[in-house]
Design goal:
7-stranded mixed beta sheet; about 325 residues; PurM-like_C_sf (chains A, B); Hydrogenase expression/formation protein HypE (chains A, B); homodimer; PurM-like_C_dom (chains A, B); 60s Ribosomal Protein L30, Chain: A; HypE (chains A, B); globular
Chain lengths: ~325, ~325
């Protein structure tokens, strides 16, 4: 299961199995999407499959995830997402009303994100060879002129900003799946971030890095950036916005919120002189109201992410090895 | 299972469930891919999921299918396919060597077709919730200036040409899956048709319709074109190239070769004055060596496909209702 978890085992699979087979230099890049030249423009192209369990959860559904996941992957390269494809793998016997509800959620999420589902496909597998509905979306966006956002561009001195409270998606899935309750009900943060990114680019077209910390959480996102750019990252732990319910859930389950998945948050590496403007633009947007500076990019310990703890200590934030919670997206 | 079979039940699912939810006018078009404007160019965008069983079969594998299926969908709009995305859904416990072999096959097929895998994703589901490997590919191609190929453009008078012998993929899958033998071993015709299409466009940039008769076979492809364009189609049954092994297999199993899936064939609707040139160009290409004129497009019986039988009779070739053979691609 760990090979699908977005951590070190996933990276190994890409490096040892897929990259040699496909020989794609572009694939080898660690970004969430590929950037490709078409007629004087640059398009971004990305794909994700979705196998979340259950299909409907507090704050969203597999249909919302399938739109927002791919829209966010495109937005993390600064692209303006425009078009989605959609592939359904249905398990024989799944209720048509369930398929209909997922399709409705997917359509509504696409309208909210301002993208259009333009092509699709459906396959059916026997009962016991699937789990209701699996979905794949691929997406295309246009990268604005002059924008060059990718993990390799992180530079010492960059300010690290997170767009809001972390850990909500992972805890929402855990609570509904395991029947756990952590005080107030926890809803997934599942949302399309392209509008927020557009607001950020309006004040800082020279943003260095954007990343949505999904599987593997903020820890995986920061580690991938540190490794790609050969820089160090220092996080001030007490500045990371962790809501009480997430903190409580993690305490009970022995988890670290830094490793819990998000589906509507981004982390940005911003040139220091733009940090105030970007933070203000984010806080003026509904999806960035709780944005916070959580740390900085440094020249020391390249490839490594460390946290300064509230008590003045330092701990290493490793890339997660495998999967904390299977089928979270 | 019928809802995934590419026949009337699939069409119903798109019409009643997906189209209303997504509200996509482009999706509602019956073509294999969407055509979208980027920077003064037109790109084609298409997706398919692949759930074929077994993963390896005579003449190919799920990796070959995943490349050729999407490349062919793009080529059927006249596009020059360039880039693919690739999403793996792995079942827990699948051998890494099997994943590696599929990835190798996929990479090799991409190189043969002249396309690049540029972005990907991997998810893992529990044992018993998948079947080894499911794959999704989405693809992007560029539509050459002046090319306008889609089912709606079929016109009375058009000559209907098929690129070679039909039914091979379906019979190959059946024979390996059911352990049947039909005389000589049957190999799938799985192949990328973009080179053949390029050769055809070189002599006839004004081609009206191209379609790859996959699920539902030639019968489904011709019915979809007849319905989309509001024209009739007359097929001379004895001109349809059916290899002996396919005829034998179909006789034993009570199937009609017209409904058996192909993965390396196309059917073209060609303006009458271009038919000779197109046929010659096809026969000069390795994947069109057995190309044949099989019928014509007529103004009578709009939306209906009829076959003239060798004995001088006429029969209606209906859209297949559901699935003849599940998980064929």
């Amino acid at each position: 299961m760990g090979h699908g978890g977005g951590g070190a085992m996933s990276a190994e699979l890409v490096e040892n199995v897929f990259a040699p087979a496909f020989g794609g230099l572009v694939l080898a890049a660690l970004g969430d999407s590929a950037t490709l030249p078409v007629g004087g423009e640059r398009i971004a192209f990305s794909t994700d499959s979705f196998v979340v369990r259950p299909l409907f959860f507090p704050g969203g559904s597999i249909g919302d995830l399938a739109v927002n996941g791919t829209v966010n992957d495109l937005a993390m390269s600064g692209a303006r997402p425009l078009w989605l494809s959609c592939g359904f793998i249905l398990e024989e016997g799944v209720e048509m009303s369930v398929v209909g509800r997922v399709a409705q959620a997917l359509g509504a999420a696409a309208r909210t994100a301002g993208v259009e589902v333009v092509t699709g496909d459906t396959k059916v597998v026997e009962a016991g060879r699937g789990d209701g509905i699996y979905l794949n979306t691929a997406g295309i966006g246009i990268v604005p002129d002059g924008v060059d956002i990718r993990p390799q561009r992180a530079r010492p001195g960059d300010v690290v900003i997170v767009s809001g409270e972390i850990g909500l998606h992972g805890v929402a899935i855990m609570s509904v799946r395991e029947g756990l309750e952590f005080g107030a009900a926890v809803e997934s943060d599942c949302a399309a971030l392209n509008g927020l990114v557009e607001a950020m680019l309006a004040v800082a077209p020279d943003l260095h890095v954007l990343r949505d910390p999904t599987r593997g959480g903020l820890a995986a996102a920061l580690n991938e950036i540190a490794a790609a750019a050969g820089v160090g990252v220092v996080v001030q732990e007490r500045r990371v916005p962790v809501p009480d319910q997430v903190a409580n859930a993690c305490a009970i389950l022995g988890l670290d919120p830094m490793y819990v998945a998000n589906e509507g948050k981004l982390v940005a590496f911003v040139p220091r002189e733009r940090a105030d403007a970007v933070l203000a633009a984010m806080r003026a947007h509904p999806l960035g109201a709780a944005a916070a500076v959580i740390g900085e990019c440094v020249g020391e310990h390249p490839g490594m992410v460390v946290a300064r703890t509230p008590l003045g200590g330092t701990r290493v934030i490793d890339l997660p090895l495998g999967e904390q919670l299977p089928r979270i997206c």
